[in-house]
Write a structure and sequence with these properties.
The chain is α/β, with parallel strands linked by helices and about 450 residues long. The chain folds into two domains: about 240 residues, Periplasmic binding protein-like II (D-Maltodextrin-Binding Protein, domain 2), CATH 3.40.190.10; about 150 residues, D-Maltodextrin-Binding Protein, domain 2 (3-Layer(aba) Sandwich), CATH 3.40.190. About 40% of the residues lie in helices and about 10% in strands. The chain contains 18 helices and seven strands. It is globular and about 65 Å long. The N terminus is likely disordered.
């Protein structure tokens, strides 16, 4: 297995998934047990001998490790189609730039996976898939709407199928909540109230672990959820910044007050990213944390957690907003075909196979090798499958509930610049800057970015 630095996995929400409720083999099928038609593939091996090049990173993720083996030389996929796929293992830090170069200069790659917020910069170089989706009767309603929106270009063409995705969930210490007879909060206001009660009864424990440091946009995770839940937004329908509206100020003030006024989190959270904030719960120093759903496996890993935390962490959909509609923040990696691929038809067969719900269920349920265990699955039917849930402690169906109202980040080609403005501003407010004036300055900066990019005059 190719090794990837832990910090890289954490930046993009990818994990190996270790220590999961014992060794299970749910959903594992013998190689070749089903024919090509079972997975919606063409019979007769019309693309026999084709060798695809797949541009991707992070093969240390369990899902990718398993699927790379299932589509390479001697694999089930090759036996069914005659096609083999070579999975690139580009370092995450260089993947976005490599995709841009390959998309515009005549790619040597056929298939590519990308982080949703990157896509608008190169979606015009991706092959529209709508006709293929229709011909193969792929049920797009089985995917969360947010996943489809992030996989669609500005002209309304689907240019990728959802491949790897994560909703945010609330993780909490089951023993602490049981001892104090506390209900699991469903809103951010409830989280704050509950965190204060926990700190009163559990001296030395933070009620909530948060992240305000500047680190690949990670301090925007909870803020975005609050902003959307309160009825605010980052950009309006004309791509103007609106996060400094009255609702935006209210949501942001609530987020900043958690560290400055309510003091329900570690004061060092001004420097925390996802690794540091999750460690607070892993090591028993915090009672709650909001993060990506793949983290559940780490809370059952004796090598990663303190003894009092081991197998003692519950989960629920990420908090909503009092009086508002829950707006979970979802992350999705679409999978598409470069327009200049010489093997587009074979590439489509590959995409159908690795995104097929039965294949994803097999991968998500496989516990024969805990170093490759991974609960990630992207269709509702897969997330609600009994075997998948039995293998993953029930978190897939919790993720499914959260994804019903989930959203992704704005699909604009300027997102990298906007993210930088937002995450720096959030950090500045967490360390003392006033909320309203800082949001107004940030909005002016984003407005200038949008004008320069030609979104409006």
């Amino acid at each position: 297995m190719i090794k990837v630095k832990a910090g890289v996995r954490q930046k993009v929400g990818l994990a190996l998934g270790l220590g999961l409720f014992g060794v299970l083999t749910l959903g594992a099928l013998p190689v070749g047990a089903q024919g090509a038609s079972y997975y919606g593939l063409k019979s007769g091996k019309p693309y026999n001998g084709t060798k695809l090049k797949f541009l991707i990173c992070c093969l240390g993720a369990g899902q990718f490790t398993q699927l790379a083996r299932m589509t390479g030389e001697g694999s089930e996929f090759q036996k069914l189609t005659g096609i083999t796929a070579q999975w690139e293992n580009t370092p995450y830090e260089g993947l976005q730039q490599k995709i841009l170069v390959e998309a515009t200069t005549g790619s040597t790659y056929d298939v590519v996976a990308w982080v949703d917020s990157w896509g608008e910069a190169f979606k015009n170089q991706m092959l529209p898939l709508d006709a293929r989706i229709k011909a193969d009767k792929i049920n797009m309603k089985d995917y969360p709407k947010s996943y489809i929106q992030a996989s669609t270009d500005s002209a309304g063409n689907v240019v990728g199928l959802p491949f790897r995705g994560h909703p945010l969930v609330l993780f909490y210490r089951k023993d602490v909540f049981a001892d104090l007879k506390l209900p699991v909060p469903t809103t951010w206001q409830g989280v704050i109230k509950t965190a204060k009660l926990i700190q009163q009864k559990q001296p030395g424990m933070s009620g909530l672990s948060t992240m305000y440091g500047v680190n690949a946009g990670q301090n925007l995770f909870s803020w975005t959820s609050m902003l959307w839940g309160a009825g605010g937004d980052i950009l309006d329908k004309t791509d103007h910044p609106v996060f400094n509206s009255a609702k935006g100020v209210e949501a942001t003030q609530t987020y900043i007050d958690m560290i400055r006024k309510d003091k329900i989190t570690n004061p060092a959270a001004t420097t925390f990213g996802e690794p540091e904030s999750s460690t607070e719960l892993l090591q028993g120093r915090a009672a709650m944390w909001v993060g990506w759903w793949w983290y559940w496996s780490r809370f059952s890993d004796p090598k990663a957690v303190s003894k009092d935390v081991l197998n003692n962490v519950g989960f629920a959909p990420a908090p909503g907003w009092t009086g508002g509609t829950p707006q979970n923040y979802a992350l999705i990696w679409p999978l598409g075909i470069f327009k200049n691929s010489k093997h587009a038809d074979a590439g489509w067969e590959f995409i159908k196979y690795v995104t097929n719900t039965e294949i994803q269920k097999r991968v998500a349920s496989n516990r024969t090798n805990l170093a490759e265990a991974d609960n990630t699955i992207v269709t509702f039917s897969g997330m609600n499958d009994p075997k998948v849930n039995a293998a993953n402690g029930g978190i897939p169906k919790v993720g499914a509930a959260a994804l019903r109202t989930a959203r992704t980040l704005p699909q604009v080609k300027t997102w990298a610049e906007i993210q930088s403005v937002l995450e720096v501003g959030i950090n500045q407010m967490s360390t003392g800057a006033e909320v309203k004036p800082t949001l107004d300055r940030m909005a002016k900066d984003v407005d200038a970015i949008q004008k320069r990019a030609g979104y409006y005059k």
